[in-house]
Amino acid sequence: MSTYTADLTSKLRFGAYDALVLTRRNLLVWFKVPAFIVFTVIQPVMFTLLFRYVFGGAISTGLKGGYVSFLLPGVIGQTAAFTSFGTAISLAFELQKGTIDRLRSMPIARSAVLLGRLGADLIRLLITVLIMIAVGYAVGFRFSGGVGGAALMIVYSLLMGLAMCCISAFIGLAIKDEESVQAFGLIWVFPLTFVSSAFVPVASMPGWLQAFANNQPVSQMVGAMRALALGHPPQAPYGDHLWLGPLWMVAVMAVFIPLAVRTYRRA
Questions:
Q1: N or C: which terminus of the chain carries fewer CB neighbours within 10 A?
Q2: What is the pLDDT of residues 68-109, one digit of tens each?
Q3: C-alpha span between 221 and 250 (Å, rounded)
Q4: CA distance linking residue 49 with residue 81, whole number of Å
């Protein structure tokens, strides 16, 4: 092994260790502050129960199991998007308080701060999704796509959460103000999640709105997760969702990861 390869391997190993240490740090904050757990877990559970029992009888989907079968993948997609609020707010808060400056002055990998934040938020999302699936089963949801479909649906939700967190990481580092970041998050997340196929069939929307709802990333990812959860056949339109959704997420990350890294270096 050449000296260059050995040095690169060593840097990658220490960088991964630093990222894991900061991931653990961020998770400890989450577990030690009950309010974080309440806002992260209770909100999506509340959405599931409210939509299930308030709107479930009024919305016809034609799916086996009724509206709850349509609803749960949509709420999971919404939760993956809303998870990004925590990424933006935490980075803006730590930037304001000088925490990021102190971390950057330490002998750790520069990438560890961002990777540690994203890693912690993905673990937090995974825990929330598993709780939501348990709640969904309690109110009538069932996986029809088998264990493989269920596992892939969870993987898709994490991919969506990662892409949304990359957007929020850039926003949090660029705006730098905790309250402004939270307000701006509502502006771009709410239209994407509610003007989508997450909660109602797109066909029920006005024609001019359907074009947007059908061709935006949240609808594509929710459609893919719904197809995996319910065992829909791989042909169109469900098969299109299975590759268009991840393609959207890769495109989002290709744009916002470099922007977040650049903004972090200048912060």
A1: N
A2: 889 999 999 999 998 888 888 888 888 888 888 888 888 888
A3: 12
A4: 19
